[in-house]
Amino acid sequence: MIFQFHLSVRIPIANSDRRGFLRDSLVYSGAALLAPSLSGLVACAKPGNGSVAAPIRRVGAGKGGYGPLISAGEELSLPGGFSYTVLSTSGQPMSDGRPTPNAFDGMAAFALPRGGVRLIRNHENRDGPSAATLKGDRLLAYDPKAGGCTVTLDVASPDNGPPVVMREFVSLSGTIVNCAGGPTPWGSWLTCEESTQGLAQGWTRNHGYVFEVAARSNRQMGALPLRAMGRFVHEAVAVDPATGIVYETEDQPTAGFYRFIPSTRQLLANGGVLQILAVKGSPKHDAATGQTVGRVLPVVWITIPDPDPVSAATDPGAVFNQGYSAGAARFSRLEGCWYGDESIYFSATDGGDARAGQVWRYKPVGSTEGELTLVFESPSRDVLDSPDNITVAPGGGVVICEDGGGEQFIRGLTHDGRLFDLAKNLLNASEFAGACFSPDGRTLFVNTQGSTVDAGVELGMTFAIQGPWEKGAL
Q1: Per-residue pLDDT tens for 152-177?
Q2: Is 349 within 8 Å of 265 (Cβ atoms)?
Q3: Where are the beta strands (DSSP E) in 130-177?
Q4: 72 contacts: CB under 8 Å, gap ≥ 6
Q5: Nearest 5°: phi and psi at 106?
Q6: Strand ordering across the sheet containing 117-123
Q7: pLDDT value at position 25?
Q8: Cα–chain-centroid distance for residue 234?
Q9: Coil, strand or helix: which one is 470?
Q10: Following DSSP, what letter does each residue of 274-331 receive, concatenated?
Q11: Residue-by-residue DSSP string for 404-437
Q12: In whole angstroms, what is the distance from residue 123 CA to residue 125 CA?
């Protein structure tokens, strides 16, 4: 049986506690901060000479996987013993009566101090300025013509029942193409715009920025663009908790990998320095093709002179080109990004000789240099097809949301690089996105995107998946 909950019920919080609600206690609970080594990815990658594809290494139940997928309801196929709950569906009323926006994308889970989970979810609306519908409060919106936003969901987990949504509301609005982002160790969500359009295209404000949403906020926030973090085609971010440095990916056919060094730790709005990665001794290194798995490349960082160029409105590569002219490395379509092993892992969706995807690792060495290693390159779309959002599970395995063609899957990856199927979208051809685990590791939250324009008919959904995680790699 599939349960759907769309309850317009506020979490009971006394007025005297409201200003202090979640203060200093609502923190990101994702397993990505405790990621083990992902060197097992190498086991299913191509050989270093690229001449012969490695065999596909799949694993079944009892060996790290959970067994074949079977229908668990109208929307998803899951392994035997797993079930799911539909928490949120586009078009259904939220707590304030407004319809839930479509285009579900990146997401993170935060622990509520009195139990339960707070989810913050991106909405990648791609309507233009004449077609977009503003979500949330017009007075607090960054750009009243823009249809992108974030939505916050408070989820309770009864002892003898499925998860229940207690509250759902727009927490930031007036942005565009909010694709991915990332959580911070200090309890906030960084939502990223995947477009640099602006006044020149009919918007009331310039776009292409990162915005911060405090996880403790119980109402819509005003939207402040973090201009010093760069105006480019943003995808995801990951924060190194040891330094507070924010690493950023760029989803372009010719893309850079960036880091933002804040002037004041945890206060990103105070500005800082934006830099782009370069391979030492190899100016303008092309990391998209012809790379060797396991080879360690020394890295230096190049400061971007103008992180917020006016020309970005008509040239999405305006920030990258500043770095590339000084010798920065080139990647192809960087997307997922997360912290683990005192390193930053990030994926290139169509990188590699087979254009089926790469996973890279950056490890800092001191404050000014580091090491870049290709830890995985898919030899075939039959092995892995376009890795997008990726998260590390409490058990150390990796959950990968594919963004390829045809049927849409969530794949799992064991410590030693063996793949298994975790979920399949039965409802439509919409991609999975925003996978993240609850603080106790019992629930995997994930989205199917749905249509990315308001007039679209494909539904976006948020699921809570539960089952015998202890029987496999996750």
Answers
A1: 999 998 877 789 999 999 999 999 99
A2: no
A3: 148-156, 164-175
A4: 78, 82, 83, 84
A5: -55, 155
A6: 104-111, 117-123, 148-156, 164-175
A7: 41
A8: 11
A9: helix
A10: EEEEEETT-TT-B-SSS--TT-EEEEEEEE-S-SS-GGGGT-TTHHHHHHHTTT--BB
A11: -SSS-EEEEE-TTS-EEEEEEE-S-SPPEEEEEE
A12: 6
Q: Evaluate if residue 446 carries a pLDDT over 50.
A: yes
253 exposed, middle or buried (CB, 10 Å; 0-12, 13-18, 19+)?
exposed
| CA distance between the termini of the chain | 25
Helix extents (H) in 80-162 = none
> Which residue type, as a one-letter code, is found at position 321?
N
Q: Are 136 and 124 in contact (CB under 8 A)?
A: no
CA dist 448 and 432 (Å) reads 5
Q: Report the CATH number that the domain containing residue 269 is assigned in CATH.
A: 2.120.10.30
Is the distance from CB of 229 to CB of 192 less than 8 angstroms? no
**Over the chain, what is the mean pLDDT?**
87
The string of pLDDT tens digits covering residues 388-442 is 788 878 888 888 888 777 889 998 888 776 789 999 999 999 999 999 999 889 9
Domain total in the chain: 1
Closest alpha carbon to 343 in 373, 368, 323: 373
Helices (H), 80-212: none
Assess whether pLDDT exceeds 80 at residue 445: yes
> Could you tell me if residue 264 is inside a domain?
yes
Question: CA 46, CA 354: separation in Å to the nearest integer?
Answer: 10
Q: Tell me what percent of the residues of the chain surpass a pLDDT of 70.
A: 88
In which region does residue 279 sit, left (phi positive, over 0), alpha (psi from -120 to 50) or beta (all else)?
beta
Residue 444 belongs to domain spanning: 29-471
* 3-state secondary structure at position 31: helix
Collapse the DSSP code of 371 into the 3-class scheme (helix H, G, I; strand E, B; otherwise coil) and give the result: strand
Helix, strand, or coil (residue 169):
strand
* Cα 456 to the center of its chain, rounded Å: 23
> Does residue 338 lie within any of the structural domains?
yes
Q: What is the pTM of this model?
A: 0.90
In a domain, 21, yes or no: no
pLDDT digits (tens, 9 = 90+) for 20-71: 333 334 655 443 333 444 555 555 554 444 444 455 567 778 788 999 999 9
The 3 state secondary structure assigned to 40-89 is HHHHHCCCCCCCCCCCCCECCECCCECCCEEECCCCEEEECCCEEEEEEE
Looking at residue 212, its amino acid is: E
Alpha-carbon gap, residue 251 to 417, rounded angstroms: 26
Tokens found for residue 460 = 């976006």
**Is 23 within a domain?**
no
